[in-house]
Every structure is written in structure tokens, then in C-alpha cells.
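I am still getting used to C-alpha cells and would like to learn alongside you. Please make up or recall a protein chain and show it to me in full. Would you write everything just below, so we can both look at the same thing?
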Amino acid sequence: MKRPVKRLPPYVMLLLDILLAGVILCVFAYFHHIRMLWGPGDATQAPVMTFAPPATSTPTGAVTPESTEHTHNWTAVETIDATCTEEGYTRYRCSVCGEESIDDRQAPLGHLHTERQGVLEATDESEGYTGDLVCTDCGAVLEQGQKTPATNHQNLRLINEKASTCTEQGYSGDWYCDDCEKIVTYGSPLPLAEHTYREKSVTPATCTKEGFTTYACAVCGAEKTGDVTPKTAHTQGKDGRCTACGLMLLDTSGEFGASFPTVFLQDSERLTLTGDDAIRAYAQAQGLSLPDDAMIDARAGDATLPAKTDGKYIALYRSHDIFLTILKVNTRLYFPGTGKSYTVQYYLYDIYIRNIDNLFTAYTTGSRVPMEDLMAEAEAEGADIVAAVNGDYMGNLNHALVCERNGYALRLPLRVESDVCVLYYDGTVETLTPAQYNRDAIAAKNPYQIWNFGPALIDENGKAVEEYSHDSYDNNIIDSRHPRTSFGYYEPGHYNFLVVDGRSDDSQGVRILQLAWLQEMYGAKAAYNMDGGDSTQAWYQDSTLRVDEDRGDDQRKLFDIICIGEVSP
């Protein structure tokens, strides 16, 4: 007879079911949280890896002891006082490169204090000596004495005497006594005579060498130099180098300072200009080059970029570490795919930075916030933001799989599904397709920012990319006209933001291909499309340049922005 199976009370069964469901949910949440180790991640994941500039590398533009392109920092290392016969001087050494220079010269003092030494009076039985003329400061014998005969000789006369020249010794002469009919005191050789110098030539001082006068002896031709004049000051040319010797006179400090020595100010001052005429005049007077809407005119034969444009500079900012201009362009763009043209307005930020830290991102790993809140948080941490645009919408986990901000790898998966843009600490930029993406290779090159929206706009030859993968990007992103934000790269330390307005009376937006054409036209070596549409937002100092007109005060909130700003060392 089988024993009846005891069943648990219904309320116990319910509690067990709830407990089991909780365990399953926790396991699922755990693996969902760490799945970025091999696949897409979560915007709130804590940093998993931090990158920083190589500790042993020398930043681009830093002065090394072998470099001559710097302003010397002289320190006195030895001072020699002038003597009777030798000049005095101070020897200086550059604390940067070790080069030495002589300056603060003092002429020889001359023999200021002399006396006769070794004087001996003649007697009837012995010779005398007139004594040597000696400098009591340096001990040099300035004039040799002569022997004098004994006083018992009365009829004396000097014979065999001979004057010295600068090449042949003379002779003091012998004393001959007529009574004795013999030489009673023999003389001695005389020192060579001083050269008879006359001025031969004058070598003027330069910024690298002291000047001097060359003298030649009228008798023997022997030469000497004297009357040294100090080096002249360097004369700075428009390129920042000395026009005579080529020495770089400007501040080349920072990672990219040596590449653009004339672009940045040399001190802590900041200059802000507005107005097209004022900005163009200032740039011309300072020898600064500006990207110009005339570039469009140069391609007037291309129907995609008509010649009729209205480009005006609206801002210029210049400091010790940043040079930035903003060109506002209104034009009509023709698209061959439709055979139509339409109005477009865009802003070109041309950006130079002295250090990579002058370009940084402000972001949140929580919920999206207004652009102003992201800027306020960055400034609360010590940054002084000059300009900012939206980023790549890093919280969109369906698209932005890889994410790095300011050297912190928030998500670094093994694979991605769309183009990636990497800004490295050395200032270089590369864009990668999903097939080219290699997490370890990127990490080995020390990344600073990694964006994952795209697509990339410029190919390896500097030409606009004209075919895009529809596996990564749908037709709306590629083929529809939208407001757009893009990031362009020229060379380390030189970048651009190109922001196109759209959905307004002044501008109807652009397609991805047209955005790529614009970046190619302005010479970008690499360029990348950031998030667009209502996310397209652009700011400069206290002015908002581009937001969506229809949204009013309720602009789309953002996860991240790209900033140009002053930062503490």
C-alpha cells in the first residue's frame, strides 16, 4: 500500500516560486551588466580601464637638451675678475640646452701699481744694478734693470747697445772704460718690444656671436682682437623665428605648441573678437590663416558645391593654449541624386589646441541632461569652456557599443556594429569600420576619446566616403536631410567641428554624403559624423549657435558633449 504524498501548503509553494523567480532575475541582471566584456554594454557601467599619456615619452614640442629651437634661459656659472693683463667676464650656461656664452666683459686693468726692485748701488769695488720695474699687483717684470760699473772707473762709455723690436731682442750695452781700455761691465739681453698695433678690421656683433675689432702690428703683422661687443638681440619674423639665425623665439611648450608656434598667444592673455571685418583684419595683421568660404568658389564647377555663398566670421578666440574661429556660411547645395538645390546654413569651428587636455568631453553615465548641465559640471571641476557641441549619444546602447571619455574606457567590447572614431593622446585621429576595429590594437596606441556613432566621412586618401554600409546605418541616417554635427581632423592639435543647421527656414539640413563633401572641401584628413537631428547643438561662450527652433526651451537632453576649453596644468 502506497503512502500518500504530502503536498506543501499553497502559500509555501507560492513563496518558493517567488524565490526562484528572484534568483533567475538576479542571474540575468548580472550577466546583462557584464556582457560588455564580450558584447554590447550599459551606459551606467563603471570604468573598466584607464588610459593616460605615456610617462616616459617626451610630449610633442617639448624642448630637449639637443633641441636648439627655444629661448635660452641663461644662468651665471662663473665670474672671472679682470687682471692687469687679462679681461674679466661672466660665463653663462643655458639651463635648457647646456650651451655656454661669455658676457659682461671687462677690459684689462693695466699695471696700476709698480716699484723698482733689486736696486743695488755700485761701489769702488763692485758693480751696481738699476733694479727691475715690477707690477706689485701681478708680479710681472715690466722693465729689466741694467748693471752699472764700479765707481772707481771714471771715463766710461756705453757700447754695443741695441734697441729691441717686436721680433728681435735688443741688448743693454757694455760699459767700456777708456782708462782701462777694456769692458768693465757686460750688459744683458733686453725683452722684446711691444707690438705697434693698428686697427685692421671690425667684425660686427650678431645675435649668435659677439663682435670684435682685429688689430695688426705695423712691424711684424701679428694680429690680436679686442673691443669685444655683446651679441645683438634676436629679431622675430612673422614665423616666430629670428630672421638672422632661425632660432624659434616663441613659446613652443605643450604637446602641439611646436607645430603652431605663431598661432597661440605668448602669455596668459585672452583675446575675443566678433564681426567678420574685424576678424579678417586681425588675422591678416597677425599672419594667421583662416579657412575661408572662398574654398567653395574654388569648386564652382562642381554642381554639388555652388559658387554663390555668404560666409561670415562670427567669432575668434585666442589664448596661450587655444585658437578658435567660427565661420557661419549660408549657401545653396545641389544634390545630383535629386537634381535639386536647397538652402543650407552651417558653422565651421576651426580649432587649434596646445595640449590634448584642451579638447575634452563632459558626460553622464546616468539619465540624459540638458547641455547646459553638462557644461556646468565640467566648469565646476575647473574647466573654462570656450566652445562645445553634442557628442555621439553614448547612452544609445543599441548603437554606441564602445565608449571612452577623457582616457576612461567605459565600454571596450571585442566587437562593434558601426564605424568608430578614435582620438589618441598623441593628437592623431583614425576612423575604423566594424571589420577594422581591434580592441587590443586601439588600447596599445593609448586612446583618449572613442566615439561610436558615425559613419566615417573621409577615407584614407582624404576624399569623401560615398558608399555606406546599410547593415550599420539605415536609410534615414544616410539619405535623409537632417541637422548634423561632425568632428574633423587635420593634424595633431588641429581639428574642426562642422555643425549643419536643419529643419528651419534658413537651413534644410544635409545628407551624410553632403556632410562628407563639406569636410573634404575644408581639407579634413579624417572626419566623423556625431549624433544629429534634435541632438545637434552648438555653443560658443555665452551664445547658443544651433538648437532646434521648434523645441524652444525643451531641447533634447544629452549624454555627452565635446568641449574646447582652458584647463589647469
